[in-house]
Amino acid sequence: MTIEVDVALRRETFSLEVAFTADAGLTALFGRSGSGKTTVIDLIAGLAQPQRGRIVVDGTVLLDTEKGVRVPVHRRRIGCVFQEARLLPHLSVRQNLRFGRLFSRGAGGPSLDAVADLLGIAALLERRPAGLSGGERQRVAIGRALLARPRLLLMDEPLSALDEARKREILPYIERLRDEAGLPIVYVSHSVAEVARLASTVVVLDAGRVAGQGPVDAVLRRADLIPDGAEAGSVLAMTVEGHDAASGLTRLTGPGEGRGLRLDVPLLALPPGRRLNLRLPARDVLLATEAPRGLSARNVLPGRVASLREEGAACLVEVACGEAILLARLTRASALDLGLAEGAPVHAIVKSVALDAGLTPGARIEI
Ligand code: ADP
Ligand code: MG
């Protein structure tokens, strides 16, 4: 399963030239407002036409301007979810979901009940949209899109109209969709926290061009690619190992299968074995040249300096801790005081409360 996008579009005040490929999983289109994210979504959906372009989804050519192929919108089998749920107000949730089914061609695809279960909306089926929370409405909109049996799901800032609590509520469902529905997703966002949590691959757009692309951990460590560089950090694919209710902490191991790293974070309502992309902002990581003693921070991780990069008055240090790479942001003066150099042994210190920032699941979520 791959998606290939290579499009060029010229408007009076804006030109866009974007090429990327994505595999299954969730690909984030990330960039500041006006960088062209929605335009790319419109081009993939067929809602806008590029001057030149080729778009292939899972071997099916949807657009090839050189060969004169332009599959119309309704034949593309692409599901779209926007900032607003756009449900039909006079229909129940069940009828809204069935409305999605109307657009599916042929048999097969998930049942309405399976989709309702996946998205946690089974109890809402007879309700009307007006009585639902914003997060619930968005889950219904996602369900409606899924029932049309799309080959690709496009989501354009689906959480940006929701408050923090509603975002936290819906994120686990998008993770399940990514992991269980087997459907590739292109997801637009300008939030580092959201991208870190959800994306496997990130394509960074800047003024209609691709500024960088790659695996989420590699891209989000690059301060130069992030609109607000101070938000750079590492993303670790961790697994919930267990909980200690007495101390109010959850232990995570990772990243990936190696599981060399252990991190204690404020209690998460996720079952042991659940995987989780954990964002660790560079500004929340301290470095010490010796193992600190008499320190309240829970997580002290021995490692080695992998690279150093100066950025204004700051110094960004990549620290290899086993398989994981953590990013630390220090002042240049501190980096100098510590005598940091490539290969030097260091201890990375992470406050466990720091790990609660950035849309990690709150303790109230049960899924
Ligand atoms: P983003 O989704 O990243 O915020 P958009 O793709 O919406 O960015 O917009 C990219 C640029 O194209 C912006 O400069 C915007 O003003 C312009 N633009 C968007 N839609 C249109 C349109 N229909 N006609 C002309 N210009 C547009
Ligand atoms: Mg947009």
From TrEMBL:
Q: Which GO terms describe its molecular function?
A: ABC-type transporter activity; ATP binding; ATP hydrolysis activity; molybdate ion transmembrane transporter activity
Alphabetically sorted, this entry's keywords are: ATP-binding, Cell inner membrane, Cell membrane, Membrane, Molybdenum, Nucleotide-binding, Translocase, Transport
> NCBIfam families per the record?
modC_ABC
Protein name listed in UniProt: Molybdate transport system ATP-binding protein
Q: Which InterPro entries match?
A: AAA+_ATPase, ABC_transporter-like_ATP-bd, ABC_transporter-like_CS, Mo/tungstate-bd_C_term_dom, ModC_ABC_ATP-bd, Molybdenum_import_ModC, Mop_domain, P-loop_NTPase
Organism lineage reads as:
Bacteria, Pseudomonadati, Pseudomonadota, Alphaproteobacteria, Hyphomicrobiales
Give the Mop domain ranges: 294-359
Organism this protein belongs to = Methylorubrum rhodinum
A GO cellular component annotated for this chain's UniProt record is: membrane
